[in-house]
Design goal:
Layout: E1 6-8, H1 18-27, E2 29-33, H2 38-50, H3 52-56, E3 59-62, E4 68-74, H4 81-87, H5 89-99, E5 103-113, E6 121-124, H6 126-130, E7 140-146, E8 157-160, E9 171-174, E10 177-180, H7 182-189, E11 194-197, E12 204-208, E13 213-215, E14 224-233, H8 256-260
Length: 286
């Protein structure tokens, strides 16, 4: 099924409309095609694919079936190309308009499902994790940018339309992951249609922190990498110090900074996560 709530990015012309805001509020997401153009995407891939600092800090998250996804997570944008994406006007402005408040960078991560071996992710809400971090309100979102083609065969994202209105669902540790209460999800699936989020490289999905989502294993010959940036609102400053930042003013840059940035090697200031600090994963689970 083709995902609904789709829009196409046009540089200099794109703006968040009332229709987009209403769709986000009613269904929990909007999808924007061609969000990164070919030149911007190649700049990002140059960093993600060739910088050993990122791969050095990656770790596997088991799914209970003997497979795993790999992830690298960092707290602050930094000054490299990926940091320019996290701080650029089109990402930040859209996030602020959808949430109705100033936002700051909560974290960025690279999710890696390798061909034939990449594991699945259980149904969950991002706020199921972030609630435990002391964020009192779900006034948060994630921006997922596809690095590779994302399709059913390589374990693309699956979402339910509208379950963010159910509020936060209890989350429990299952295998090595924190997952939403299975029985509650089954009931929600009966009233909120499921959609596969198939994306081309450079497409983006902006989704609410209470949107239920999952993804299947990668049984294909196609790698599936995704670049995800999470944002919290200034007024939702976490009340508990934890492994992600409390309110830190974000230094926004023009969209042109992505193309103009020449830093593809210096990762200083990003503060990569040590997975031992993250209580929402269990790396020893089988």
């Amino acid at each position: 099924m083709m995902i609904s709530g789709e829009y196409v990015y046009q540089d200099g012309k794109f703006m968040v409309t009332d229709e987009m805001k209403n769709y986000f509020e009613n269904y929990g997401y909007i999808k924007i095609r061609n969000f990164l153009d070919d030149a911007e995407l190649q700049k990002v891939k140059e960093v993600l694919e060739h910088n050993q600092e990122i791969t050095k800090h990656s770790y596997g998250i088991p799914d209970g079936t003997g497979r795993e996804c790999k992830m690298a997570l960092w707290r602050h944008p930094g000054s490299d190309v990926t940091g320019m994406v996290a701080r650029c006007e089109k990402v930040v402005d859209i996030s602020e308009k959808l949430l109705g408040d100033e936002v700051y960078h909560y974290h960025t991560k690279l999710m890696m499902k390798e061909a034939k071996t990449g594991g699945q992710f259980l149904w969950h809400q991002d706020y199921g994790y972030w609630y435990k971090n002391g964020c009192l309100f779900p006034d948060m979102l994630t921006v997922l940018i596809s690095i590779d083609k994302c399709c059913k065969e390589n374990g693309c994202l699956q979402i339910l339309r509208g379950p963010h209105k159910c509020g936060r669902i209890d989350h429990l540790m299952v295998a090595g992951q924190t997952g939403a209460d299975v029985e509650r999800v089954k009931e929600i699936e009966k009233v909120c249609p499921m959609e596969f989020v198939e994306m081309e490289p450079g497409d983006a999905l902006f989704f609410h922190s209470n949107l239920l989502h999952t993804s299947g294993p990668n049984n294909s010959d196609l790698r599936r990498w995704a670049f995800l940036m999470a944002y919290n609102t200034k007024s939702n400053n976490p009340v508990i110090p934890h492994h992600c930042p409390q309110y830190t003013p974000l230094k926004k840059v023009p969209n042109s900074a992505i193309r103009d940035c020449t830093n593809v090697t210096d990762m200083s200031g990003k503060e990569f996560l040590n997975p031992a600090e993250d209580k929402t994963v269990n790396l020893n689970a089988k």
